[in-house]
Amino acid sequence: MSKEIQQGTEKQNAHVQELNTALGAFLQYNPELGKELSLSLNSNNSDNQPLSGMTFAVKDNIAVKGFRLTCGSKMLEKFISPYSATAVDRLVGAGATVVGKTNLDEFGMGSSTDNSALLRTNNPWNTDYVAGGSSGGSAAAVAAGLVPFALGTDTGGSVRQPAAFCGVYGLKPGYGSVSRYGLVAYASSLEGIGLLGLDIGLLKTSFETMAGLDAKDQTTTDMACFRKTSTNRKGRVALLGGLEGLSPEVEEEYRSVVSHLPEIGFTTEEVRLPFLDYVVPAYYTIAAAEASANLARYTGIRYGLSDSEAETPRELTELSRNAGFGPEVKLRILLGTFVLRSGFQDRYYLQAQKIRSALRKSMADLFQKYELILSPVFPVQAFPHDSDQLDPFQQKLADRFTATANLAGVPALSFPTGLRNGLPVGMQFIGPDGSEDLLFQAAASYRRIYEPEHPERFIGRSEREV
Amino acid sequence: MSMKEGKQTGAGRPGYEIYIGLEIHIQLLTRTKAFCSCRAGYGDEPNTNVCPVCLGYPGVLPALNEEAVKQAYLVAAALNCQSAALTSFDRKNYFYPDMPKNYQISQFYRPIGTGGYIDYPVDSGIRKVRIHDVHLEEDAGKMIHAGDVSLIDYNRAGTPLLEIVTEPDIKSGEQAEAFLRYFRSFVRYLSVCNGNMEEGSLRCDANISLNRPGAGLGRKVELKNMNSSRFVRLALEHEVERQSGLLDAGETVAQETRLWNENRDATILMRKKEAAHDYRYFPEPDLPAFYPDEKFLGQVKQQLVELPLERRLRLQQEYGLSIEAAAYLTIERETADFFEAVLKVLQGGAEGFAATVYNWLNGDVMKELNNRNLSLGNSPLSPKRLADLLLLLEEGRIHGKIAKKVLSLIFERDRDPEFLIADEGFEQISDDNSLRKLIEKVCSDNPEALKQARAGEKKVLGYLIGQVMKSSGGRAEPQRTRNLLAEIIDADEEKEEKAR
């Protein structure tokens, strides 16, 4: 590397560090470590790979070998991952370089990133506001131009909602499209690795690089099995009825987006999705149940926070968890344990699974007639830190538009549609299994109506330089 | 094959019906673990066969080992179970320091096999036990307590375990012991487990309840910590005594889990029912359901073998063997295979040879194997070599004592019997010239004895024969030697008489 480039790189890194101080997007920023990883994986190191020269950030609940894997939790604050997620390996194998790990709500549980036990993340549009969550660090990093794209994870909206809050694109792929190997499990049957970015072409390339069968995740599907499009649904967009409880700004924005859709060749029709009211209870029941088992492995025995005073294995586990887990994590573990108790499964867990099956079926029915569904991402825009606009319970209720796609296992993409009161608003397209490509196309078409903007303080460097 | 109900054995206390069910865990003999590619080996350095997956690191996922599933379907088929057209996994939640994820991947809702049965021999009879289900799961690590610290070895964590749950069809501790002995043989025949209870590759928990005849099952007591089939019998017999004592006294049996304590020869309370785990089973989201296809089921079918009891009955019928002989020969598939292979080489005289081959296998061959810590499969004795040895004996080319010597030499030198008897000069001396020379030498060395023999002392004749055998290294053919010696003694007498 020439001296000039090296100095340039150092300068750039220092600049990112400085911006990060204001944003709190990265928990760990270490491009050198990322380069080492790239060198160890890329024997051919050629410049004409699909993602050559691209840098990206990784949400800190996704494993990158040699980087920490904190999950925003004290439990794993010092844990260094001995392996990389399949999605990361594939991106690095295609020429991209990891620069660091981004902040999140502890174990992905939250909608503001304020549930991180390690760092506060601010919205680049107004640092008094939250970036959304749980992939808030990735959304903030992308919106501020610190990286051209970032990995997030979406269990009930955790990619799409922060994307909407920060004014970037956010893809939640269909369940099984991208390997979950290396994604620290919270709610295994709902979550997946997604993408945040401002360049749709880059997101598409990144998605195609990550997607597909993986022997390490037997729930992955072969994307090739979806390559069939029917024409009779072309351009037909279903609008979800029953949109009570939107903030005036989001509601106005939604109406405006609907009114613009015919300009880019879409026809719209209002539909009612049965079970929409049950999405949130079903989603939280299943997510908590799975979380109660997934988080049982944190005992302080093999890794992670370990209480040194404990005298028995049981005590070690109790003390380590008590100190290592935050209140939201404890709440969900308790809730999940509760709904799985024998004798109570019929009332909660199995009931939730029935709702899930019914929802899937009604979604599949909708996609017989419509190419896509349009809905808001979240009922409100980004809110101030420590605001009482949404208490934790209301934040959960607000997941109903996003969690629908997770329960059904279908892909969804949130896209920036405009600014209201100086803060971004986003809407989402939801498509049938295997329709990620279609979602990218639709979002690209909408750029004719609205070009995403950049927050003034954080000029979109990545877009200019890339 | 006729399966008759055997006579009731150890029928327990009069006045009570006894219901015993077993939960058996077998470690499957797969190359790799159930959900990762670590070696499924035993006896390696602690924590060497481990990876992020079997250590339950953050972010890892299980990937199902198809070989384990295949072995599970094989056992289910051999146990006459209904094999699942769709099988899936569930999480069983409980905390234990040596269980990395603190939940065990097991099967609850859709096990691999259900509703089967197995016939097993007890004494000279045959009994049937119904199988409730057969399901696949992962094993935990091993905790080792050393002074005031506990160490955990995760080599075993994630290795495939198959659990076989029987219906409560066993009526006594003795039957349970017989069942387990047979089951060991059964899994070894299928090559799915080495069946070692002491080392824990085959583990057994039991449940037992007593009740008045016709009143159905009683209150169930679960028994654990029995690491041999004998302890299973002893624990059950102890429970029959304990529970019938309680019932006799008009008390009720508490539903609880008890541990066998071999030092006290008694079961002791582990936990009451109220303290039982709630495992909070729910479907494992990380593993898709498994649908066995035609090809898979074909491969399973191909691995089905004749089971030990079937084989025992066939050997009895085909070769006229006694139950004891056939039972001995069929405990290990290796022995039965060897036995039949020897008879195949010896074809023709099979009927006559069967008992001989059994006697050799049960006698000298077993001794040689034990002395050298070998098994039939890895010893220098092939069926062909044993058959050749028996033929040499049959043809009179060697006699019994030499045959045993040759057997030892086969083990020592790993050569064929023909070569060995030639090389060692073991062939019996039966031609008159050679024998006469040996006898004349002995006679001239022992003039006194010869004189006494001539005087008609029978004992001395035996002594002289012994001397000939000794000087020939045991090779002189005994009958011919006796005849020739008699001739020579007589001849000498004639000569002397003539001289007089």
Structural description of this entry:
- The complex is a heterodimer of chains A (about 475) and B (about 500).
- Chain A is about 35% helix and about 15% strand.
- With about 475 residues, chain A is α/β, with parallel strands linked by helices.
- Chain A folds into 2 domains: about 5-230 and about 370-465, Amidase signature (AS) domain (Amidase signature (AS) enzymes, Alpha-Beta Complex), CATH 3.90.1300; about 275-350, no CATH class.
- In chain A, helix 7 links the parallel strand 9 and strand 10 (about 265-270).
- Chain B is α+β, with helices and mostly antiparallel strands and about 500 residues long.
- Chain B folds into 3 domains: about 15-300, no CATH class; about 310-425, no CATH class; about 430-500, Arc Repressor Mutant, subunit A (Orthogonal Bundle).
- Chain B is about 40% helix and about 20% strand.
- Chain B has helices at about 65-80, 175-190, 230-250, 295-300, 310-320, 325-330, 335-345, 350-370, 385-395, 400-415, 415-425, 430-445, 445-455, 460-470, 480-500; strands at about 15-25, 80-85, 90-95, 105, 115-120, 125-140, 140-145, 150-155, 160-165, 200-210, 220-225, 255-260, 265-270, 280-285.
- In chain B, the strands form 3 sheets. In chain B, strands 2-5-6-9-1-10-11-12-13 form a 9-stranded mixed beta sheet.
- The longest helix of chain B is centred in the C-terminal third of the chain and has 23 residues, at about 350-370.
- Chain B is elongated.
- Residues about 1-10 of chain B have low confidence and may be disordered.
